[in-house]
Amino acid sequence: MPEHVGQSVKKSGGRERVTGALQFAADMQMPGLLHAKLVTLDCARARILSIHAAAAEQVEGVHCVLTPADLPRPMPRYGPVEDDRPVLADGETKYYGDPVAVVAAETEQIAAAAAERVRVQHEELPGVYTVEDALAPGAPLVQEPSLRPDSPHRDSNVYNEWHYAWGEAEADEADLVIEETYRFPMQVHFAIEPHVFAAAPDEPDGVVIWSTVQHPFPLRRAVAESLGLPAAKVRVVATEMGGAFGGKGYPKFEPLMAFLALRTGRPVRLALSLAESFLAGRRAAGVVTMRSGFSRDGRFVFNRSRADYLIGAYADITSSIVSKAAYIGCGAYRIPNLEVTARAVFSHTPPATAYRGFGAPQYLWALEAQIDRAARRLGIERLQMRLRNIPDRGEELIPGDTPVDGDWKQGLSLAAEAVGWHEPLPPGHGRGLAIGVKSPRPGAASQALARLHHDGSATLMVGTTEMGQGSKTAFSQIAARALGIPFEKIKVVCGDTGRVPFDAVTASSRSTVCMGNAILAACEEIKRKTAALAADAHGVSADRVSVSDGMVHLPETVLNYAEAICSSYGPGEGEVMGLGEFRLPRDPEHPLGGPAPFWEIIFFATEVDVDRETGQYRLTKLVTVADIGKAINPAAVKGQDEGGSLMSVGQAMMEQFILDERGRPVNLGALDYRIPTTQDIPLRTESLLVENADGPGPFGAKGVGESGATAVAPAIASAVAQATGASFTELPLTAERVWRRLKQQERAPDTSAPD
């Protein structure tokens, strides 16, 4: 039988995705389906004085106009961490796109026309749209203090603050000290498939939700609590998805659809446009001020920083985003004295949520830039500067946490070699390096149910959501190896809380490790049970039966799975089930709830060609080297790294979500929000893997998926800096920004820039 683990087998559902045959949530057909349309205001913050729905209700084909008056009081609120997001805007809108009502009608066109007829009397109020505005004395409060009476920050726009430090907190002396402020803009996920939410009454008194959601079990909890139902009465089906990147992780409008479905007694679907999806969630903007001290030989002496993340109107999952990014404030470097303060700051902007990289890109943009600046000032080559500060395998990266679990110097050296780091550069060219690192979610559980059928085929039941990342394929490969049966004889069922066992989240690059280990445990239980069945059927003791390579070995004979099951249950009957669980350790004393299960780390190397007259530049080379332990499916792993890094090329070079002075977006949709096209991708891309089988997952695997999106921007900026002699502190690094910096440099040369 072929060895499937480590082979680039075809991705499950891949053909259906590229041919258009795959059925997405917007393609679902349900008898009696109503279509929903949100009613919003043309401003960010406003006091709602009255809502008049009579004209909309008179439109033929309209079945319901749901307003805040139709919902329970107090207004139900929900969220992954804080229950602070109302089902509909409660007395005041908090951001542009905050819905004040919703229409359900026979068609999308009727719903949209009726929504235009809903009259909302409102008074526009001043809002805060930047970190500086939100933190200014006397700034309007985004959230009422009564929503968080126990918070020490309730009378400010600070949601929460995290502080991490080790070494000498007052250490501030070094041979070189550099202090700078770096800015990272709001960005949107821009998944090919927009958000879609549907709900229907479920007999006798429950509700079923279909959603483009990554985490069906947390969504089930949010909907159940909003409706006052037990979790058993709420079923969530995570549909096949056309991309997510964190933007589809947590509850959006599913509670609203549930209320609407129960009120109308019919299934209801809300399909957002691409422009509307921009308002459903985005990456937090960041402002990071960093003070770094170095010795003459280029080693960190201390690093002190303050990071402010602009999180929008509601908390969402930003407590985890900001705290995790701050916790690993050392990046991939040995820093003996460190102090990080990070704040999540409310604003009257669309809510921030998880985004590939989960807070790390905002912080690493600053940290990697500081290292480059120090290298220039000290006259130390940038590769050597990093190598001197990277800890060795087995060293503690963060005091008391998981030691370094790979040869990181090896990975960085491979990236430099692949980009031709020491080769002569043509005029106008520059090369850059950066290291991306993040810690996956600690303390989470995954459960898997494996069913071995009468014919020797198997079904895996998992709570992990398939959103294009290839988890179904990887899980089938893991089970094929564990059970010793062909890959083609395994089916994976996922993402339906009414059918599959629990999984915490499909995020944090944890699925291969956590769910993969749960699958291994389920397969081992199947083998134990099958051996016991065969022993009983053939009258031998269980200790004389073993299972390996898909065969059941008895003292006098060898059976395949089908024969073993038949010998116990009879021809064509019975099956063997195994339930497996993998739980990461929890530590209530740990700042994040538990140590890192592994370090997700990746090394970037870039080369650019810059036109000094216009500021235009091309990314001629982009190399990624990921330390992944063991690639279950090498092509899929490389695809994740390439996809993440190319996604981040846009974030580095052009992407920014812009609001006007009233908090209204000015670049909604595909025409005005610039993402990379085929004209922008690197001329050469190479993805390399470091496989030392040193991870905690199946066969030594570590997680992959987010790392490619962590530190492309500083690697590109490093290359542009070498090519131009200019340094940069703000993203995106557009041609105009490069041109302006070069003109500024002509007037006042940057003494910290490279020769």
- What is the name of the CATH class of the largest domain? Alpha Beta
Radius of gyration: 27 Å
Estimated helix fraction: 25-40%
- Mind telling me which CATH architecture of the largest domain this is? 2-Layer Sandwich
Question: Can you summarize the main beta sheet?
Answer: 7 strands, mixed
Mean pLDDT: 95
Q: Compute the separation of the termini in Å.
A: 59 Å
Instruction: Label the structural class.
Output: alpha+beta
Descriptive report:
This protein has 755 residues and is α+β, with helices and mostly antiparallel strands. The protein has 3 domains: 32-125 and 195-271, Aldehyde oxidase/xanthine dehydrogenase, a/b hammerhead (Aldehyde Oxidoreductase, domain 3, Alpha-Beta Complex), CATH 3.90.1170; 285-441 and 590-747, 2-Layer Sandwich (Aldehyde Oxidoreductase, domain 4), CATH 3.30.365; 444-583, 2-Layer Sandwich (Aldehyde Oxidoreductase, domain 4). The chain has 17 helices and 28 strands. The chain has a 7-stranded mixed β-sheet with strand order 3-7-1-14-11-12-13. Strands 9-17-16-15-10 form a 5-stranded mixed β-sheet. α13 crosses α14 (561-569).
